[in-house]
Design brief:
Rossmann fold; seven-stranded mixed beta sheet; 6 helices; about 30% strand; binds S-adenosylmethionine
């Protein structure tokens, strides 16, 4: 029987989690090869390629290791480490990004190039391989980048004056991104917020925990819920769901799910499914370049 090959790119350090996810979600695909941040699989010719992965940024058909760099290759070029140089003197032209599969060259190590067909998702970021959005930013934490990337990847319709309920807001990286977009934020955290956030009149601090939070503490017309709490996802959702259920003006929720153990992958998928049913909402899941062992869930109430 003939076979086909698949590749997936993840953030370095998450290879084990991606392997586990592939094992239980796409068992007909067998692990073939890996380099830090890059995994390949082999599967039966008549199987579809995996369509959704929690622990990969981008993926597609693998066409194998390149022995000689093709002279007239047209497509995308992706380096797993920005500091590496392409082992070629050919001019590298980046193509326009469209949906649908497109040729790709991946530099998986300084001297190792793989060729494939990239399958960008509707919510892939605008850069091939999704190199983080490294815009200059001033914020109390790098979580600013998580929110920036989630806003771009999920094309969030954040409008000035939209009200946000933010859980786990300290020290204020995400808050800073939201305030920069002119949103008004109610932040819940017992830890200390950065002075720059506290000085902003559009920021209201709730010195509380998610577990003890009551709906009287924030406005009824909250448009967005953002959660970035370092507790197991199951615990966060247990306490967050009753709040979400009562917010009738909610446009969407962005919730980070920290995944430290392979068993939590199944748990997150199960909750993702249950949320979709309970809220009749579209639920998307995305591993972002700035994430470590995390993925972001977006619930869109439409
Ligand atoms: C990853 S940090 C958040 C970073 C923050 N979003 C930012 O942008 O700077 C996780 C935060 O969750 C908070 N946290 C942990 N348990 C919590 C709970 N039960 N309720 C509310 N916040 C909690 C912690 O105090 C911590 O500040």
């Amino acid at each position: 029987m003939s076979k086909k090959y698949f590749f997936a790119i993840t953030n370095i350090g998450n290879e084990k989690l991606l392997k586990t996810e592939m094992e239980f979600r796409y068992p007909s695909w067998k692990f073939a090869y890996s380099r830090p941040g890059f995994l390949t699989y082999v599967g039966p010719e008549n199987d579809d390629f995996p369509t959704e992965l929690m622990m990969a940024r981008v993926w597609g058909e693998s066409k194998g290791k390149v022995k000689e760099f093709p002279k007239n290759f047209k497509g995308f070029f992706l380096k797993l480490d920005e500091s590496w140089d392409w082992p070629t003197t050919y001019v590298i032209k980046q193509s326009q990004i469209n949906l649908g599969s497109q040729p790709l060259m991946v530099l998986v190590a300084p001297d190792e190039v793989w060729q494939g067909e990239l399958v960008p998702q509707a919510y892939s970021l605008g850069t091939v391989g999704e190199v983080g959005l490294s815009e200059d930013f001033q914020a109390p934490s790098r979580a600013y980048l998580k929110m920036l990337e989630a806003a771009k990847a999920f094309a969030l319709d954040l409008k000035a004056a939209d009200k946000v309920l933010e859980l786990g807001s300290a020290p204020g990286g995400i808050t800073t991104y939201l305030l920069n977009q002119q949103l008004e934020v109610w932040g819940v955290d017992k830890a200390e917020m950065d002075a720059s956030v506290l000085a902003n009149k559009k920021y209201h601090h709730l010195n509380n925990s998610l577990e003890k939070l009551t709906e009287r503490e924030y406005p009824k017309d909250v448009a967005w819920v953002v959660s970035d709490i370092n507790l197991p996802f199951k615990v966060v959702m247990k306490h967050l769901t009753p709040h979400i259920q009562k917010l009738t003006k909610l446009k969407g929720a962005v919730i980070t799910a920290k995944i430290e153990k392979p068993t939590q992958l199944k748990e997150v998928l199960k909750i993702k499914h249950e949320l979709g049913v309970k809220f009749k909402a579209k639920v998307l899941i995305k591993h972002l370049p700035s994430h470590r062992q995390e993925t972001a869930l977006l619930l869109l109430f439409k």
